[in-house]
Every structure is written in C-alpha cells, then in structure tokens.
Task: structure prediction
Amino acid sequence: MQEITLIAICTFGLEAVVKREVKALGFDRLKTSEGKVEFQASVDDIPKANLWLRSADRVLLKMGEFRAMTFDELFEGTKALPWGDWITEDGKFTVTGSSHKSTLGSVRACQAIVKKAVVENLKAKYHIDWFEENGPEFTIKVAMRKDVALLTIDTSGSGLNRRGYRIHSGEAALKETMASALVQLSFWREDRLLIDPFCGSGTILIEAAMLARNMAPGLNRNFASEDWPSVHPKAWKAARRKARLAEKPPRGMQIFGYDIDDEMVDASQRNAKKAGVGDDITFEQKDVKELWIDKPYGILISNPPYGVKLGVFQELNQIYISLHKTFRKKKGWSIYMLTADKKFPDYFKRAKPDRVRKLFNGPLEVNYYQYYGERPPRE
Ligand SMILES: C[S@@+](CC[C@H](N)C(=O)[O-])C[C@H]1O[C@@H](n2cnc3c(N)ncnc32)[C@H](O)[C@@H]1O
Result:
C-alpha cells in the first residue's frame, strides 16, 4: 500500500490536542509545527482521519515541499510532483494560497503559477490540452513559508467543524472543533458531572457527549475525497461501518446546559437530537444568577458572553459576580472558561487560574482559564 503524508491542520494553540488525537488513531511518525500535525498513513487511512479527527480543521494530502525563491523554482518544483496520481482527467482543481516571510509574497501570483504547473503536468499525463473540470473537486493549496513551498490537496472539502448536526446556532457559537478541544483539555470524563451555564447552541456539551460515546464526528457528512477514484469506495464504506460499530449506546451521563435565552435552549435541544446525543444532555432555560449547585464535585466548561461579541459590561460584571458567589467555595469543581475578557480572573477571584492557554476563536485572541478542582474520592 502506497505510503502518503497527511497533515491535520488546526487553530493555533490546539496542536497538542490534535497530536493526541492523531496518535490515538494509531498513526505514527508525527511531526508537529505551528497549526499542523503531519503523519504517515496509507491511502485507505484518508477516510479514518477525516471521520475521526475532532479538533483538526482539515486533513490535507501532502504533495511536496521544496525551496522556491523564484517563480521558475515554484513552477518547476510543482510540475515535478505526481498530480496525475490523484487528479482525474475531468477533475475540477482550484488553487488557494498563503505566503509568510517569503520572497514570493504575492499569493495570487503563486496560485497562478501553481495552476499553470499542475496543468502542464496533467497535460503530459492525459495527453490532452483542455480540461473540462466538471468532475471531482481537488483544492490545491500552495503555502509559502520562509521561502519553502508546501503543496497539498485538501481531502476534507468543507471544514471538519461541519459535522452536520448544527441546524441552529447563536451568533457567537463556537466552532465544533474548538469545543471538542476544550473538552479534551479538561479533566472531564463520562462518569463526572458536566455543566455549561452559557450553553448557547450546545456545542461544548454535544461534543462532550459525542466524545464519551465514541461517536465519529464526521459520520454524518461527506468529504471531498469521497469522490476521488484514488481512494477506494470500499475504504470509505469500511471506515464508516467500523465507526458505526464503535459507537457506545446512551449511558446515563450527567450533562447539563443552561442559557438565559429560551430560543438557544430550544436550538441546543434540536442540535443535540440531530447529533444523536439528545438523551445524554439536559438543557434548561436559566439565568446564571439563578444557578444553584448542590453537588460537591463537577466540571464546568463554558464560553460566556464577552463583551466583544455579546453583552454589555455591566451585565458581564453581574455574570462574573454570580459565578464567583456560586463557585468560590466549591473546591471540588474544576472550572474552564474560554473568554476574550482578560479581566475574567480578577472578577472570578477563585485563587489564580492553574493554567491559562492562549487560543484563537476565529480571528479573536481568547484565553482558556483553567481552575483545577479537587478530585472526588474514589468509590
Ligand atoms: C458566547 S455564547 C455561548 C456560545 C456557545 N458556546 C455555542 O457554541 O453556541 C454565550 C451565551 O450566554 C448566554 N447568556 C448571556 N447572559 C446570560 C446569563 N445571564 N445567564 C445565562 N446565559 C446567558 C447567551 O444567550 C449566549 O447564548
């Protein structure tokens, strides 16, 4: 079986989580760098990586990497790669690009050169001069970084965050990939109580439930490479079948979501149902000021309103004061908050956060404040 290199790309700051996921899928020879985890695989692994990766944005097929300081070098280097092994005669291929700290700084020009080079390569393979481009989609990316060109083809199509369960979302909904990473960065395990008091469309809790039930996040969507003849339909069928069999049944978990907005509560319920975890989560309309916690141990993971996107500052103060009052003495609760508001720890005031992780919610720099609670005594 031909060995290929796949690259799981992700939001800055999530590399460690993605690396863990890639390893757990059984891949080896991993190479991690900013925003990406590279790993060795076989062609038949393309379905598995796409179906199962939870925190990665996309899975790219690495075509080649070489130094290019001139357009000639970019053209020749690109033309020499085996595009015909993947792109079909009727393939529709577009080129996207980026450039960072490189002599070839014009992304548009790089894209045009790469397209030309790929066309030349395919002309030689298929012995035709004109490509109809009405077949399967191949999105090529040329990423220039410090004068090194990385050429890839996107195997995923739309981003892996598009799991297909979100029918309703609030204006400040988290990406599913980020929500899953927040859960994986926490101490939550399926036998522990989990709440999100600002659940919005329910993303964090839905991702937690899917994780606990070993549900493949990509099972209910399609991927660009499903239409590629190079990845055998049997491989997709087998990977989907395996994923369906791996799923665990509902298991009476204690997962609760609250939101002040009853429309969001309704949206969460519908999204959870669509995701297949409707019976695992209880959603309820509740203002955080009315949140009453009587359990000594639990985990809170949330993404409160943070002024930039929602809410006004006075309202935010009230929210922080409520959280402070509720959790000040709850030493058995681990609290995880993702917010752009750097003042959060000053108001929440439960000692100092044990860890602060810098992440990005879209273009917005945010912090993931982690306060570790005492572990429950072993039964
Ligand atoms: C940033 S959004 C959460 C988005 C969510 N993580 C998702 O993926 O959809 C914040 C949510 O807090 C809710 N909210 C605002 N004030 C609240 C309050 N006082 N009590 C409870 N929820 C509140 C908003 O309705 C909004 O849905």
User: Anything to note?
Assistant: Residues 170, 172-174, 197-198, 200-201, 203-204, 259-261, 264, 287-288, 303-305, 310, 319 surround S-adenosylmethionine (CB under 6 Å). The first helix runs from residue 15 to 24. The chain has two domains: 3-154, 176-215+222-371.
